[in-house]
Write a structure and sequence with these properties.
Serine Threonine Protein Phosphatase 5, Tetratricopeptide repeat
């Protein structure tokens, strides 16, 4: 959930927590807006060291399963067959077939919480948001017979998709972190969501448990989002040697993964390795041209990274150079407007750039978010609160940045009213 900030849909990157990249392409190898979680379950399911599912005839299905799937029980053998069929497809990254199987399992047994929950994950993207919400609610309504840590997991997604309550999400993450479950999908999802709420030290704990399970199971975890989020958490905590190690492992498995290349570029740029930065930028441009992705200039890319890393002066300099070389590029205009609003400088210019970057008929949440920041910078707190609350309500995806900014404004207003 995938979890980087290439911008095309007017820098929806400003809404993408933990540097999740955004672009007009939707590909597993090109950065895409974080849909909270896109699990790529390509682990080696045939490893003899995998735990056998309790009370399940795994031999009937031809392969053993990880412990993360074992605590799903139904009184209906037919529902269980469909459930394990769904797991099989999900492990093979056959999302449509997996969703169909989980749907059939839940039709047979309408109390089957884990079938509904994995359907939630599979349906979780902006195009199927309503379907994902429906599944999340059905899983939540039937969770009480499950082990406590799985109840917490389901409650986490209820918070992400339905209540969008920061406190609920934080509490569920903290509760999950105390689990002793031997499940890599469990720890991967927890780590990603801890990154999303900027709890990077806790995220590293979750990813470390996944890393240890890979050693124990003698099987690698091939979800590129894991390497991306783990490395980004290490970056946030200043663990740059570990960050480089994680990204190297990810790129060994997926040499052309644009998200991982982007993150490696960020690491090199912040650490002043100019030669590596240039090599990586050239490689990303080459891959983008070959695969028909949007091609970002070096200065534009650097500007986005510097903005993410709170290097305001460097970000503004790079983005102005990028715009000077491509004066009609609306993506660069919008990103520069975001940069100026984020660092509270040249707000009149930020507004003008924002207006130029958007057609009048476009209702863009990224643009509205920046308008809210500009209002907040100018001290128009009630206007900022109304704008950002509207962004939160309209967005199909929960964003920590919006929630935390809203909380900050509400606190400031409360202090003003108390005087």
């Amino acid at each position: 959930m995938r979890k980087i900030m290439l911008v095309s849909l007017l820098f929806m990157c400003v809404l993408a927590v933990n540097g999740q990249k955004s672009t007009d392409q939707q590909s597993s190898n090109e950065p895409s807006v974080n849909t909270l979680n896109k699990m790529v379950l390509a682990a080696n399911a045939s490893s003899p060291s995998f735990s056998k599912a309790q009370s399940i005839d795994t031999e009937k299905h031809g392969f053993a399963y990880e412990e993360d799937f074992k605590d799903a029980f139904s009184a209906s053998p037919q529902a269980m067959d469909k459930y394990w069929e769904g797991v099989h497809h999900m492990m093979a990254d056959q999302s449509n077939d997996a969703l169909k199987a989980f749907t059939e399992a839940f039709k047979i047994d309408s109390t089957f919480a884990m079938a509904a929950f994995y359907a939630t994950l599979l349906a979780n993207n902006p195009e199927h948001y309503k379907e994902s919400v429906r599944w999340a609610q059905m899983a939540y309504d039937n969770k009480d017979t499950l082990p406590k840590d799985l109840q917490d997991w389901i409650s986490l997604w209820h918070g992400l998709l339905i209540t969008k309550d920061c406190n609920e999400i934080q509490q569920c993450c903290d509760a999950m972190l105390t689990s002793d479950r031997k499940s890599r999908i469990f720890w991967d999802d927890l780590g990603e969501n801890l990154c999303a709420i900027e709890q990077y030290e806790k995220a590293i704990k979750a990813f470390s448990k996944l890393e240890a399970l890979c050693v124990e199971l003698r099987s690698g975890w091939k979800n590129s989002g894991y390497y991306e989020n783990y490395g980004s958490a290490c970056h946030a905590m200043g663990m740059h040697e570990k960050e480089a190690e994680v990204f190297k492992k990810g790129l060994t498995a997926s040499p052309d993964d644009m998200s991982l290349l982007w993150d490696q570029t960020r690491c090199a740029l912040i650490n002043g390795n100019d030669e590596e930065v240039n090599n990586l930028l050239n490689k990303m441009q080459k891959i983008s041209k070959e695969k028909g992705y949007t091609v970002y200039t070096p200065e534009f890319t650097k500007g986005i990274i510097y903005t993410m890393e709170n290097e305001g002066a460097k970000a503004e300099e790079s983005l102005r150079k990028a715009l000077q070389n491509d004066r009609d590029n609306k993506d660069i205009m919008g990103t520069l407007a975001w940069c100026l609003a984020k660092f509270n400088v040249n707000l009149d210019e930020a507004e003008q750039l924002l207006a130029k970057s958007q057609s009048k008929e476009t209702d863009n949440l990224g643009s509205s978010y920046v308008k809210g920041l500009i209002s907040m910078d100018r001290g128009n707190l009630e206007e900022a609160l109304a704008t950002l609350q509207q962004v939160k309500d309209k967005s199909s995806i929960w964003y920590y940045k919006i929630c935390s900014t809203i909380s900050k404004i509400e606190s400031s207003l409360a202090n003003q009213n108390a005087k």
